[in-house]
Specification:
- With about 850 residues, the chain is α/β, with parallel strands linked by helices.
- Helix content is about 35%, strand content about 25%.
- The chain has 24 helices and 36 strands.
């Protein structure tokens, strides 16, 4: 969930505490605001306390306490935000949860929570624990101690579900928990699982609402609002539909109500197509009713300039304060072909055919193109989301929903920008382990960001973003045409077991063209099998069967030209039938029958659908993408590199002490200081005159560097030293954390990598030691965002080791990384 952070009104908070304020996603998908407590909250805290049931009060305070005394209120609301920290969660300005810790010394703090009765079970306690733990770690608190009554099972469950290492003891009906706050694999997995569940739940109000209200349709039946209402009704939405109009009794054939307050049942989703200046009034009504989500099709926000951007921020803040998610503004809409939903709340007059491919786009114009391409290809769609200005709901939220959506088995995305690439990488890596994700990504540059979408400035090269996607298992393509080429194959055919392609057909020229294309994509090609152009159906079926049965073939491409006496459909029927008999993926080049044939399109009922392509090159490109993805997916997830002899704690102390002594700005370390910092990560800088083993004919000089990008976070880069690499752009990049396989792939992806392995008769160099150096620098880059740049130049890779002969390290105030690991992210 993308969130707004900032200080509560009137608060005089330390900068670090001000940064704790954030919007959060709750377990049921609702939104809430979390912030530090202030003395101004005394009345709100008393009101919260009075609303609590006697049992909840007893479980929190171990005594009956109908009201808080003045002294209690002052003590609870006046904290120093370091030794004593308290956070509150609110919806619509009403407190629904309070959590606090007080330091006991020696890195231990006592922690306690209280959640409003009406909001228990929504994950408020888990949110408070996660944020309090993060604040505690900032102040060197390493453990929480909690005293709970035996009957307080909800809070016991919160601590257990958090995944931290914990011990407990029970005495006289009181359980004392000691919770180690150091992050563990289990605690990170638990936090990510809670985040995924909450964000997926928030999307259900958009993609599977039980009821909808449309605001903005007119009596004349013209305009955007009327089109949306018509499409919802024509699409056969299974839930309740209400139209809101202040002066009409009937709109679009439905009885209208004058205001949202008059809607008989509070809608899950409200669709807004009113002028931008009227949106705040509608949002305020929705907040008071308990609406869960807003689809804002209206334009006139950040895409039109600074004033619109302010209005957009106000829109999101008001929606979040009311516990609502926002899709848009300037969205093209949403679609779901689920028979239990049948939702077309979009500007597309026709719903696509049902299928298993989910689609995401940002701008409305691209939404039109994407849906039209799917329709022409006869590719069935499960759901479609257009994010518009991406003010709140983003591609990350959609990915979380599709991960658990049984109707979706392939995800296709057209991304014009990435607001949080690090979180995108983490979320999509998890999804890609079970469902392929195909992405069209336009150029990543400041001028390519669409109007209305807020993106941090980035100096990272295009290749760094490509590396981020590749590490996450994303299938990146260049065009919408290619997206559907790949999606059609993955949606209807099994993954290949290997790269060995069998080509069959009734044209030797076409088969040779396909084989040549396959070789250019680094597939292995068996000798093509062909039949005569006029071959009958039995011969065609037999040649396909032979390829499918060949143990030396992993995937098959069938290239057939219809004869002058027959059209393409009977030939397609034969190919589809033969392909369905085996377990290997099959693609077809059937001139005259492009798109998806067979399966559920009605042309060839009862058979597994077969993707058909107009040219062999299109088919081969899709097959090669499937091979690369299958290879990535079958490899077990590799852990991040963890080289020995790393003292991250000492490095952290060194950097913090250095920055504390300075007023900010860039800080170039001296050679000795830089070497000392690098030594914390086991990187030795030799310096001197460079007369070390391997610099001459037996070694290869490289440049290894890392830097902190405002958008991507840490980026590691490697290239050969010298002008040739600089001029030819032979530099590769990786985005930490890197696995051992990521490091090996990075080193070998240099075009000049053959020089490491004995090119032109030279002695091979010690690539293992180079990989170890890359791994160490990647760990430093990941752990120390204060390292603005570190350049190791030159680095000489010799036959028996790698030697760093020079280094330059530059520090800067650390940026806020875009994926802090909680259910929040700063704007």
């Amino acid at each position: 969930m993308r969130v707004v952070t900032g200080e509560p009104q009137g608060a005089d908070l330390p900068p670090r505490a001000a940064g704790w304020a954030a919007d959060v996603a709750l377990r049921d998908g609702g939104a809430a605001h979390l912030r530090p407590i202030t003395p101004a909250d005394a009345d709100a805290l008393q009101a919260f306390h009075v609303r609590q049931s006697p049992r909840s009060t007893y479980l929190r305070f171990f005594a009956e306490m109908p009201r808080l005394s003045g002294a209690d209120l002052e003590r609870f609301t006046t904290v120093d935000h370091s030794e004593r920290v308290a956070l509150v969660v609110e919806v619509g300005g009403t407190l629904i949860g309070v959590g606090r810790y007080e330091s006991l010394g020696d890195g231990v703090a006592e922690v306690a929570f209280n959640v409003a009765d009406a909001h228990q079970g929504r994950g408020v306690g888990s949110v408070l624990l996660g944020h309090l733990a993060a604040a505690a770690r900032e102040h060197h608190v390493t453990a929480f101690r909690a005293h709970l009554l035996d009957g307080n099972q909800r809070m016991l469950d919160v601590f257990e579900a958090a995944g931290y290492a914990a011990t407990s003891r029970s005495e006289d009906g009181v359980v004392t928990l000691e919770v180690d706050l150091r992050a563990t694999t289990a605690s990170l997995a638990a936090e990510h699982a809670r985040e995924a569940s909450a964000e997926a739940a928030s999307m259900r109000a958009l993609l599977a609402p039980r009821s909808i209200a449309v605001v903005g349709a007119d009596r004349a039946g013209t305009g955007v609002g009327s089109a949306l209402l018509r499409h919802v009704l024509d699409g056969g939405f299974t839930g309740d539909v209400t139209v809101v109009h202040p002066g009409a009794r009937r709109v679009g054939g439905l009885l209208a109500v004058a205001t949202l307050a008059d809607v008989p049942v509070t809608p899950d989703l409200v669709v807004l197509a009113v002028p931008a200046e009227n949106v705040p009034h509608v949002v305020a009504q929705c907040a008071g009713l308990g609406v869960r989500a807003l689809l804002v099709v209206s334009g006139g926000f950040a895409e039109v300039g600074a004033e619109g951007a302010r209005a957009q921020r106000d829109l999101v803040a008001a929606a979040r304060a009311g516990g609502m998610r926002v899709l848009g503004p300037h969205s093209f809409g949403v679609l779901s072909t689920d028979p239990a939903v049948r939702l077309n709340a979009s500007l597309s007059p026709r719903s696509p055919e049902p299928g298993n491919v989910a689609l995401f786009s940002q701008s409305g114009a691209l939404g039109v193109a994407v849906l039209d391409a799917a329709r022409r290809r006869r590719l069935g769609i499960s759901t479609f989301v257009s994010a518009g200005n991406r003010a709140d709901v983003s591609g990350n939220d959609a990915l979380q929903y599709w991960a658990s959506d049984p109707a979706t088995s392939v995800v296709g995305m057209y991304l014009e920008s990435l607001g949080n690439p690090r979180k995108f990488s983490r979320v999509v890596r998890s999804l890609a382990r079970v469902k392929p994700v195909v992405v069209v990504k336009s150029a990543m540059s400041p001028w390519s960001v669409p109007a209305g979408q807020a993106v941090r400035a980035s100096s990272a090269p295009q290749e760094a973003f490509a590396a981020l996607l590749s590490q996450a298992g994303v299938i990146r393509v260049e065009t919408v045409h290619q997206l559907f080429d790949v999606a059609a194959l993955l949606a209807h055919q099994p993954l290949p077991a290997g790269p060995r392609l069998g080509v069959v057909g009734n044209s030797e020229a076409l088969a040779v063209l396909a084989a040549q294309a396959a070789l250019s994509w680094r597939l292995e090609v068996a000798p093509p099998r062909t039949v005569a152009p006029g071959a009958g159906e039995e011969e065609v079926a037999q040649v396909i069967d032979d390829a499918m049965a060949d143990p030396g073939v992993d995937l098959v491409l069938a290239c057939f030209l219809p004869s002058p006496a027959a059209d393409a459909v009977p030939l397609a029927r034969v190919v589809v039938g033969a392909a369905a008999s085996g377990s290997k993926p099959v693609a077809a080049c059937l001139l005259g029958a492009p798109g998806v044939v067979g399966g559920g399109d009605g042309s060839l009922p009862g058979a597994r659908a077969l993707p058909a392509y107009p040219t062999p090159e299109d088919a081969v490109r899709a097959l090669a993408a499937a091979v690369r993805y299958a290879r990535w997916r079958e490899a077990p997830p590799a852990p991040a590199v963890a080289p020995a002899r790393i003292d991250g704690a000492r490095a952290r102390r060194t950097v913090q002490a250095r920055q504390a002594a300075r007023s900010g700005g860039r800080d170039v370390l001296s050679p000795a200081e830089g070497s000392a910092l690098l030594a914390c990560y086991g990187i030795e800088v030799l310096g001197g005159d460079g007369a070390h083993e391997g610099q001459g004919a037996g070694g290869v000089a490289v440049v290894l560097s890392c830097g902190e990008d405002p958008l991507c976070g840490p980026v590691v880069s490697l290239g050969l030293a010298g002008e040739a690499s600089e001029l030819l752009g032979d530099v590769v990049h990786g985005v930490p954390p890197l696995s051992g396989e990521d490091v090996a792939r990075l080193v070998r992806s240099l075009r000049s990598a053959p020089r490491f392995f004995g090119y032109a008769g030279a002695e091979p160099v010690d690539v293992t030691s180079l990989e170890d150096l890359v791994a160490r620098l990647s760990v430093m880059a990941g752990e120390l965002p204060e390292v603005a740049a570190a350049v190791l130049d030159p680095v000489v890779v010799g036959p028996r080791g790698t030697h760093v002969l020079g280094a330059r390290v530059e520090l800067a105030p650390p940026p806020v990384r875009a994926d802090p690991g909680l259910r929040t992210a700063p704007r």
